[in-house]
Each structure stands twice: as structure tokens, then as C-alpha cells.
């Protein structure tokens, strides 16, 4: 993937509505699977994922997550 292609893809990705997230929200991530938000400072969340993925800090405006 070249730089221009990467930038075009990033711009095309829509932002998540972060107002639906809070501590305790269960989420599903495209790569890490299911998890629970354990810390929240909009738009950054720390999420505890199962399956050996551990705790990840993600920008929920851009991360491929959805509320479940």
C-alpha cells in the first residue's frame, strides 16, 4: 500500500459517535474481539480484551469498534 492510498483510506473512514461509550460499555473490535471499557477520557479508552489481547488504549473516534 502506498502513502496516497493509505491516506485516502484513512480519510474515507467515518468517525464513531463517541457519546455512546463509557466505562463498563461492552465493545467489539474487528481484530481484538470482545472487550470492556475500563478507563475513558473521550475519545481515548482503555479496553480490556479477552483471548490474550490484554488491555489496549484506543481512539474510539477512529478505531474499528462498535458497542454491543
Explain the overall architecture:
- The protein is mainly beta.
- The protein has one domain (16-67): Roll (SH3 type barrels).
- It is 15% helix and 41% strand.
- It contains one helix and five strands.
- Strands 4-3-2-1-5 form a five-stranded antiparallel sheet, with no helix packed on it.
- Strand 2 (33-41) and strand 3 form a beta hairpin.
- The longest helix is centred in the N-terminal third of the chain and has 10 residues, at 3-12.
- The chain is globular and about 35 Å long.
- It starts with a helix and ends with a strand.
- 15% of the residues are buried.
- The model has no long low-confidence stretch (mean pLDDT 88).
Q: Main sheet: which strands, in order across?
A: 4-3-2-1-5
Q: Give the fraction of residues assigned to helices.
A: 10-25%
CATH class reads Mainly Beta
Can you tell me the number of structural domains? Answer: 1
Structural class: mainly beta
Q: What percentage of amino acids are in beta strands?
A: 35-45%
Under CATH, the topology can be stated as SH3 type barrels
Number of strands: 5
3D shape: globular
Unreliable runs, pLDDT <50, ≥5 residues?
Answer: none
Run of helices and strands: HEEEEE
Number of helices: 1
- Going by CATH, the architecture would be Roll
- Characterize the quaternary organization of these chains: single chain
> Average pLDDT across residues?
88
N- to C-terminal distance: 32 Å
**C-alpha-based Rg, rounded:** 13 Å
Sheet of most strands: 5 strands, antiparallel
